[in-house]
Structure formats: C-alpha cells, structure tokens
Write a structure and sequence with these properties.
- With 178 residues, the chain is α/β, with parallel strands linked by helices.
- The protein has a single domain (50-177), classed as Rossmann fold (3-Layer(aba) Sandwich).
- The protein has five helices and nine strands; from the N terminus they run E-E-H-H-E-H-E-E-E-E-H-E-H-E.
- The protein has a five-stranded parallel β-sheet, with helices on both faces.
- It is globular and about 40 Å long.
- The mean pLDDT is 95.
Length: 178
C-alpha cells in the first residue's frame, strides 16, 4: 500500500443524517485526482491476478469506486441497484443498515457460475450492504473472491458481520476509522 494520506481529505459531519451520527464525507477524495487515482490503483493492484471476472458495486458510491476498479482490472462491472431501477428480471436481497432496512437488485443475466466476483464499495459500516451484495452475486451463480472498501468503520465491527457468511473471504480496506 502507498503512504497516501487519504484521511486528510475526509470531512466529518456531526449529526448527519441523524443526531449522534458522524458522517464521513468522502467526496473530496473523488474530487482530488491524485487521491482518486491512487485509491483505485491500490484496490485494483491488490486484487490483480486473482481471477476476478466481475466487480459488483452497490448503489450509489460503490459505483464510483467499483467501476474504475473493474476498468483497471480489465473486467466487467455489475451495478447492484435500489429496487425498481433495473429494467429486466432481477435477483433481490434485503439487508439491515445503520438506520433501517433496504434491498438491492442485480439483473439475473449479469453473472454466471464462471464468474469470480470482487464486491467493491466506498465504505463498510455494519457490513449489511456488503453481505447483501455478495449474496446477490451468489444468486447469480458467481463465487465471491473478496471485498474491497475505501473506508472501514472499525468501531461498528463490520468484519464480524462479513465473517458470519464469508469467513474465508478476504476483506481489503484502505482507510480504517477506529
């Protein structure tokens, strides 16, 4: 990993989206060309040569990280969208998040049993979105080879949640918030 100081570009917003939550605004990372290129390169380089055939990213910021990682790996990108956003037949997966529940969908023809998937998102908090995304990939027949995140909120213990269903699957994170 590089010694790039990503954290200098993260802005903490207290009491957003609700009181007691400190929101980590990562949009300045995407605005900084060196930071954005470095984070994409680091994630892609870490998983290069591991047989990844598709990157699956969750709506919406997972698209911002996952799509360029897929491009760098030379593989396809599969968007995991909010319900009702995809025009063809879909698989659906519900999950819990910090402030409620939600669900994601992928097209039924997006993945095959030949696919090896990297689940990629900007942030992992409780792990619910990542697990739901991985389960969607499995519904499509794919094998989940790893999880990649720009930021991990360690104090919420997302690795414990990921390990329940994916105990032997690598979790790679660039920024760890204790």
């Amino acid at each position: 990993m590089s010694d790039f100081d990503y954290e200098k570009l993260i802005i903490s917003i207290p009491d957003y989206p609700e009181p007691g939550v400190i929101f980590k605004d990562v949009t300045p990372l995407f605005d900084d060309p060196q930071a954005f290129q470095t984070l994409v390169d680091e994630i892609a380089d870490h998983f290069m040569g591991r047989g990844i055939t598709k990157v699956v990213g969750s709506e919406a910021r997972g698209f911002l990280v996952g799509a360029p990682v897929a491009y760098k790996l030379g593989v396809g990108f599969v968007p995991a969208r909010k319900p009702g956003k995809l025009p063809r037949e879909t698989y659906s997966q519900s999950y819990s998040l910090e402030y409620g529940t939600d669900s994601l969908e992928i097209h039924k023809d997006a993945l095959t049993p030949d696919d090896v998937v990297l689940v990629c998102d900007d942030l992992v908090a409780t792990g619910g979105t990542a697990v739901a995304t991985a389960k969607l990939a499995e519904q499509g027949g794919a094998k989940v080879a790893g999880f990649a995140f720009m930021m991990e909120l360690c104090f919420l213990k997302p690795r414990e949640e990921l390990a329940k269903d994916y105990p032997d699957t690598e979790v790679f994170t660039l920024i760890k918030v204790k």
